[in-house]
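It is worth pausing here to work through a concrete case rather than discussing structure prediction in the abstract. The textbook approach is simple: state the sequence, then state the predicted structure, then interpret. We follow exactly that order.
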Amino acid sequence: MTKSALVYTAAGATAASGAGVGGYMYATRETISKEQKKKSISEVLAEAGKKVLSTVAGSSNPDEEEWKKRQKAYGTATNEELITDVGASGGESTLNKSESVDIEKLKKWCKKHSSSEFTVAADATYRKVLKWCTREAQ
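Step two, the predicted structure:
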């Protein structure tokens, strides 16, 4: 094989591999953009006709009556339904079952977890957000 034949062969192989990589990137662009469009738990719940309760602190909250219902219901929650206290340091510990659970702690948990990425409806976080943080949309 002559030098020029080797050069052309090498150049052809390089171009083919570059085209292969470019073709792969073009073919997978849809997959990448779909992955970037993952939905939050609150978005999935909205599509299912649910509204995530407002997490505004204090009595000016438009969903305050709904929060009081959740507070009372928390006293009869099963162990699987208990949520965690979101601490300032980021650490979390389970909120004890009580009809007088701090509503602001419920709101804080809901605010953090309703924006979490949705995976499946059987996910424990999704089920807890559904139970403690939503009402029927009107």
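Step three, interpretation. The helical segments are 3-36, 41-47, 64-74, 103-114, 124-133. The mean pLDDT is 83.
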